[in-house]
Amino acid sequence: MAIRRGRGVAAINYPTGMNLGGDPTQALVHSTPTGNFMVTLSSVDLGQGMKQIMAQICAETIGVPTDRVIIDTADTDTGPHCMGTFASRGTHRAGNAVIQAAKEARQVMLEVAAEELEVNASDLETDGQGNILVKGAPQKSISIFDVALSAHFKRGRSISGRGMFLIPRSYPEKETGAMKPSTCYAHACTVAEVEVDDETGEVTVLTVKNVFEIGRALNPKMVEQQLVGGSWMGISHALYETTEPYYPNRDYGGTDFNQYLMPGPGDLAKTEIIVLERPSADGPFGAKGPGEMCANPQIPAVANAVFDAVGVRIDTLPITPERIMRALKAQAAG
Amino acid sequence: MELRKSYFADVRQNGLNEIGQPRPRLDSPGHVTGKTAYFADRNFPGMLHLKMVRSPHHHARIRSIDTSEAEKHPGVVKVLTAKDVPHNVYTILILIQIGPEDETVLADGKVRWKGEAVVAVLAETERAAQEAAAKVKVDYEVLPAVFDMEEALKPGAPLVNEYHGQNYYLYDSGECRKVRFGDVEAGFGQADHILEQSYQSSPIEHAPTETTGCVVAPEGNDRFTCYTNTQAMFFTLDNASIILQMPGSKLHFVGGTVGGGFGGKVDVIVEPIAILGAKLTGRPVCFIYSREEEMQISSPRAAEKVVIKDGVMMDGRIVARKVTGYTDAGAYSRHSPYGAQKGAAHYPGPYTIPNVWIDTYCVYTNRTPSSAMRGFGVTIGDFALEVQMDKLARLIGMDPLEFRFVNAYRDGDMKAHRQPTEGAALIECMQEASRAANWPVAEKYMAMSSYTKGA
Amino acid sequence: MAKVPVQFTLNGSEKAEFVDSGTTLLHALRDKIGDTSPKGGCHQGTCGACSVIIDGELRLSCLTLAETCNGADIRTTSGLAEAGVLHPLQRAFLDAFATQCGFCTPGMIMAAKVLLDHTANPSREEVVEALSGNICRCTGYEPIIQAVLTAARANSQNAA
Question: Is A182's Cβ below 8 Å from some Cβ in B?
Fold first, then answer.
């Protein structure tokens, strides 16, 4: 009887957005009198940071710092339609809608600035700090604060924009299944290293090395949050979680956090995250949805590592000590 | 976390001010000071508490319901049964034309899973609602139940859901969603080895720290504001509008700040009945799942069974892959027909295989209806695919990582769904993993690229 | 139902309420007094989201009856910042990106505060032990552990 080590690999891809498309999201952007920008949505932040990312996307597009953007979301009396936060769609769908709305608002802003500076709007650029400059002659400039005041009180313009993003729905062909499930895919490869106690069936995930390709890390610290948490959930799915431990038998289902098992802060694998960026053709600044796929590759990687360690295949999730012990017993019985 | 910018450097847009910057989250100061307002942080004077009477049986006919004792219980304001719900039979995906309507808001004549909502009790306090719920008498005639997907698909199995008429979802393609590409039998015929394996999972709970719920307040003008932790504002509003036969203009949903979702809060379960309660009593109503309800009543990730049959050559090429996927929807559709179909769209995984056959079934059984969860339709499929890949590599004596390089999809490769591959990056992920994990592979694999075919 | 008087100090302010006998401190704080920083994640003592500090000790407010808190000194996360200046723990949670949905955060901060009040320089193992009664479903815990260790270092540097 011994502690045995093994390692396993898994490689996956994952679609961004609702399968087969047809999932719209809209956004509205408008400027306040002093050049702050309000983004109005009905998208939901589940904790992944949707509000912050939409603020950064709007800020980048308009040409202002992120703290000049306010997010007003998920009030159906004011927010235009969003299909919802699921299917790794939030950043991609809502982000594209925000870009379109912000571009339209930016155009009005530049037109007003052009009138104030008596130049063509096409000759203007933003410095990202809240100013609009004449290209090649940056000493000639006006603050966005002043442009917004002018638009509101002098020129009677609404610095605002409408955005809409919809990938037309694909209908699978009945006999062949020909279809377009998604426009872009995130990718991952995970190597997990485990120890298995062949006397108790207990698995310890020692290290998990995850490489994720996510299009573009719009906010690297927030991407890291998702990927680290997702990697934890993948390991949790692999080894711990189920509401019906003896499925299809319905008995013994957990009803609280004492019975429904997940790794606690003392059960963490040493986790490494490496991010690659291959910008997607239709993503906001190339972004894809990393939120779901980051929890998938750990499951087969751990399963393969368990086999590498003790030579038994557990093809039923979760990979519990009981299942490992039964498999080891069957293996010993030959 | 490390960002490896050497990959795909030629296509990355640089010179951005806000994108790519680790800006602090604008919602975090609220989180660390306890000031962030979640739906349950709204409290209204005179708010009623809603508790459900739930089925103790997996499958039963309801002979009668007697709510008289419950209605007399001190503090009880209203007791709701199926007849109070204007459009009681619904299905959430009807909004995107995926029917039929197959689920009851409150059970009408029958229950199809243990835990199904039968009677809603509204009372002044949570305790009074719970005590009164225990006094509702439901007379059941227990019916045979089916829990196993293969049993459910056999002729003569108990019929779970009459709205479907059979224990599987009927797609326009028939009993399953199909993908047919190349000639899978010819592929098996030429293969050096064939491996057929079966994989299984059990239901998984989202387990967000904040349970599913909502608080509804009448606005005094025939409109109702619903503070909710739904993941989809208008999806929920529009479904509530259908169920309540109430114009959407009478409904005002406020949300967007949710204590974790993971897919568990895209069902439309708590809002319609709570709004109905508020409408019929003229009082604010809260309906918040207990932790036990969150664990056993709210939809879990479906149990799945995946059977994969592969034909592989000794040089590592997979020449044929046949996948049969079964998704255990439980008693009602919710999002499962979509999820099973998403599985069909995902197989055969990120690999280029010339002959592919995919069938995915959405199966009804007498268990808690399953629904969306992080990785919906894909997570369990990836477990099956990637364990199968490991077995195949060992079968032909190849390194498991190198085996994946041999089969990895690249730009321009035709997928089984007859879409050319675009934007692939699997190879680069595996190259980086090889380095990071000190898992060396042959130089020819490290020289590969997703951009072009041919080493 | 018979009401019982409860009187205690909440984040330094005197509070007095009449509650139904059997009311939990969690409900009293949230529904009567209006401090919604303790969260109800399970109402059965298994998630830690409702954690508060009573007379210097970490307590689950969902399993504590309000009527047993007469005369107590109760602290919650909403009272941690002084004059708008964040407590080092709050600062560390922000800087470490240790919050996602934020629902577990007030309870985590309470658990961490009691640890740091008793142990100025905790080891990683001590931090893990202190947080082990609190469930987080988003972060995978590591950023939270790092935040607590960072706050502890900041505290001890200030003390030195």
Answer: yes
Are residues C105 and C42 both part of a single domain? no
Give the pLDDT of residue C158: 72
Number of domains observed in the structure of chain C: 2
Does the distance separating the beta carbons of C36 and B209 come in below 8 Å? no
What is the percent of chain B where pLDDT is above 90? 98
pLDDT (tens digit per residue) in C144-160: 999 999 999 988 777 65
pLDDT mean across residues, chain B: 97
Q: Which CATH number does the domain housing residue C63 bear?
A: 3.10.20.30
pLDDT at B82 over 60: yes
Q: Which of B266, B296, B326 is the last residue of a domain?
A: B296
Is the CB of C124 inside 8 Å of chain A's CB atoms?
Answer: no
Pair B55, B95 in one domain: yes
Q: Of the residues C45, C61, C79, which one is the last residue of a structural domain? A: C79
Please give the structure tokens belonging to residue A139: 């000493």
Query: pLDDT by residue (tens digit) across B100-151?
Result: 999 999 999 999 999 999 999 999 999 999 999 999 999 999 999 999 999 9
> CA of A135, closest CA in chain B: separation in Å?
16
Q: What is the pLDDT of residues B249-300, one digit of tens each?
A: 999 999 999 999 999 999 999 999 999 999 999 999 999 999 999 999 999 9
The b-or-e profile of B421-439 (16+ CB within 10 A means b, else e) is: bebbbbbbbbbbbbbbbeb
- Cβ–Cβ contact C46 with A under 8 A: yes
Per-residue pLDDT, averaged over A176-192, amounts to 98
A326 touches chain B (CB under 8 A): no
Interface test with A, best of C43, C100, C103 (most A CBs within 10 A): C100
Chain A closest-CA separation from residue B18 CA (Å): 5
A307·B450 Cβ contact <8 A: no
Q: Please tell me which residue, A320 or C155, carries the higher pLDDT value.
A: A320
Instruction: For residues A53 and B88, give the distance between their C-alpha atoms in angstroms, rounded to a whole number.
Output: 39
**B173 and A188: CB-CB below 8 Å?**
no
Domain end among B296, B327, B350: B296
Which residue range forms the structural domain that includes residue C41?
A: 3-79
**pLDDT of B455 higher than 50:** no
In angstroms, what CA-CA distances link A68 with A34, A36, A56, A59, B339? 10, 5, 10, 7, 40
Q: What is the DSSP string of A251-264?
A: TT---STTTS----
In a domain, B431, yes or no: yes
Contact residues, chain A, for C105 at CB < 8 Å: none
Best residue in B21, B27, B28, B31 to probe C by mutation, most C CBs within 10 Å? Answer: B31
Which one-letter amino acid corresponds to residue A12?
I
Residues B290 and B305 in one domain: no
For residue C58, which phi and psi values (nearest 5 degrees)?
A: -75, 130
Please answer whether residues A150 and A143 qualify as being in contact, where contact means their C-beta atoms are separated by less than 8 angstroms. no
Kindly state the tokens that stand for B50: 């809603």
Which band of pLDDT confidence, cut at 50, 70 and 90, is reported for residue B14? Answer: confident
**Is residue B37 within 8 angstroms of chain C, CB to CB?**
yes
